[in-house]
Design goal:
Length: 146
């Protein structure tokens, strides 16, 4: 089964029709037939951003539930240490905590496919094995959507 990692930007854009990338993200996600995975840090960021709309938090929970999105937590001390090490390594990009947890999740799931709007960051970030990320939205736009 195909697996994609889900970053904050596309998650918020999917739920908010007013976001400029909503049409592309929606078409990409609606055409996806695999399993999405994200982290609790991404959910925290997304929940904050969608809370500007009264129905935003409920829409987020419904999306996660109906889509059976796998949400993984990286809050154990050793995982926090690994996240901070990544943030320090990519401080010039920069990498925030949610980004670091997605890199750690990519390593755990052995996947490199990510739905993100952070092209600059995830074009530069690498797993500890040196694997580059595949930016699935860009690929979708070039092949299916564009």
């Amino acid at each position: 089964m195909k697996s994609w990692l889900l970053d904050t930007g596309p998650l918020v854009a999917y739920l908010d029709a007013g976001e400029t990338s909503h049409p592309e993200v929606s078409a990409c996600l609606d055409g996806f037939s695999g399993r999405l995975f994200t982290t609790s840090a991404v959910i925290t960021e997304a929940m904050y951003l969608v809370s500007a709309s009264p129905e935003g938090p409920s829409l987020l929970v419904e999306f996660l539930t109906v889509g059976d999105v796998g949400v993984v937590d990286f809050s154990q001390p050793s995982e926090l240490h690994d996240a901070v090490a990544l943030m320090e390594k990519y401080s010039d990009t920069p990498m925030d905590y949610a980004d670091a947890t997605l890199v750690l999740l990519a390593e755990r799931l052995e996947t490199r496919h990510i739905l993100t709007l952070d092209r600059r960051g995830f074009s530069a970030f690498r797993t500890r094995r040196g694997n580059a990320f595949s930016l699935v939205l860009d690929h979708w736009i070039q092949t299916d959507g564009g």
